[in-house]
Amino acid sequence: MRSFKIILLISLLSGILIVPSCVIDSCTGVDFDAVRFFDVQDLEVFAFPKEGWWERIEPTDTVDFDSLGGLYLDFLVSYTAQNSSWQMGFPLVNRAYACSFIAGFDGSKDEQLESLAITSLDFWDIDHPAGSSLNDILQYKGNYLEEQDLALNDFIQAQTGFLQAEDMRLELLSHPLRAGSYRLKVNMTFTNGEAYEEELSLNVK
Known about the structure:
205 residues; six-stranded antiparallel beta sheet; 10 strands
């Protein structure tokens, strides 16, 4: 999956992204009302280095303070395409095979963001003791569809409609005060009652 993201990014940057020749008119046996939307089934969260959001920092990795880039939130979604339901973790994969690249083009059907909180379960710095929210030191940088640059709390307050993309990139504006292991918890709720919680570990030196 990581290698696909790298290839995809290179293709997007170079302007040579190749998509299948299949178009809507050639798709048969597809319920278009069903494939217009995506439905969030779960949430995956991992840290990424400053070198690029498509790289994953594993829980067993140890990174320098200055190498820590931020957090990548990936919605694991389901679609119905060609009369079968399936799931993929990376959204553009779903849009790159057969006729299913149209899936989810109208965003989420039921999910509207209600709250998003990133909490450090360990002492982060003087202003962020254990149990503190890190939202104030996170910057929303956009998703695979578009680049943005908003304080995370401002982004959350501005959300009034359905999700338009299946991922979020959050940049960390400051690193922990001390070297060591840190546990972060991500809580996300939607207005339809869905709630997701994920934890990840970071080792910094």
